[in-house]
Amino acid sequence: MKRLLTRAAPAAPARGPRTAPDPASAMERRITGAFASGRPARIRRVLDEVNHIRAHAIMLATPEPDRGKVRLADKLGPRSMQYMVDLLPHIQEFIATQPRGTRFTVLDVGPGTGHGTALLADLYRGNPLGYGMQVSGLDIRDYYATYFAAHFPDLPLVIEDVFDHHTKYDIVVTSHAIEHIPDPLGFCRRLQEMARLAVFVSAPFNEPPGQLAAGHINIIDDAFLEQLQADQVVIHKSVSWGAFKDPPYESIIARLPGRGTS
Question: What kind of fold does domain 73-257 have according to CATH?
Answer without folding.
Answer: Rossmann fold (3.40.50)
